[in-house]
């Protein structure tokens, strides 16, 4: 919201932050002078490198494309080892369960019985094998 003080550095800073995080924002201007609002709209769009989208009454809409958040992805990286705690209960009810710590690698899986097995290769369909 832009008040009676007009376009202050604080308003520019907040508008820039909102455009950076949201991309498309609405700004409400309290002044009644339409030519002053249009001048303010163009000045704000030019200074913040944003596109003026719409000006309806006292509402201004600005848009600026958001910067892509880069994530460092390593193509050769696979799932790391995971630690699991396996409890093996006794056939007799009154005894404590046996606790075993198991390390499962990325190409392995843990069965319901607490054993570690290698993962199987994914099967392709019969139709795909006939075509290729």
List the helices and strands and how they pair.
Layout: H1 9-22, E1 24-28, H2 34-47, E2 51-56, E3 59-63, E4 82-88, E5 98-104, E6 108-110, E7 116-118, H3 126-131
Antiparallel strand pairs: 1-3, 2-3, 4-5, 6-7
Descriptive tags:
Translation Initiation Factor IF3; alpha+beta; 2 domains; 3-stranded antiparallel beta sheet; two-stranded antiparallel sheet; 132 residues; 3 helices; 26% helix
Structural overview:
The protein is an alpha+beta fold and 132 residues long. It has two domains: 9-63, YhbY-like (Translation Initiation Factor IF3); 77-118, no CATH class. It has helices at residues 9-22, 34-47, 126-131; strands at 24-28, 51-56, 59-63, 82-88, 98-104, 108-110, 116-118. The protein is elongated, with a radius of gyration of 31 Å. The relative contact order is 0.11.
Question: What's a concise summary of this model?
Answer:
It is built from 3 helices and 7 strands, in the order αβαββββββα.
- Give the amount of beta strand, in percent: 25-35%
Based on DSSP secondary structure assignment, what is the total number of beta strands? 7
CATH architectural arrangement of the largest domain: 2-Layer Sandwich
Uncertain runs are none
Number of helices: 3
Full CATH superfamily name of the largest domain: YhbY-like
**In what order do the strands lie side by side in the largest sheet?**
1-3-2
The figure for the number of domains is 2
Biggest sheet features: 3 strands, antiparallel
Distance between the termini: 62 Å
Q: What structural category do the secondary elements indicate? A: alpha+beta
- Report the mean per-residue pLDDT as an integer: 84
Radius of gyration: 31 Å
- Helical residue percent band: 25-40%
Q: What's the CATH topology name of the largest domain?
A: Translation Initiation Factor IF3
Overall 3D shape:
elongated
Write down the secondary-structure element order: HEHEEEEEEH
């Amino acid at each position: 919201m832009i008040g009676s003080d007009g376009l202050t550095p604080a308003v520019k800073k907040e508008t820039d932050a909102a455009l950076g995080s949201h991309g498309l924002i609405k700004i409400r201007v309290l002044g009644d002078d339409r030519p002053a609002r249009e001048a303010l709209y163009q000045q704000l769009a030019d200074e913040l490198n944003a596109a003026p989208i719409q000006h309806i009454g006292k509402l201004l809409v600005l848009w600026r494309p958001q910067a892509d958040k880069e994530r460092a992805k390593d193509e050769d990286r696979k799932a790391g080892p995971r630690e699991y705690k396996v409890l093996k209960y006794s056939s007799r009810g009154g005894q404590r369960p046996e606790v075993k710590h198991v390390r499962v690698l990325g190409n392995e899986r843990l069965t319901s019985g607490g054993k570690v097995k290698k993962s199987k290769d994914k099967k392709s369909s019969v139709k795909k094998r006939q075509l290729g």
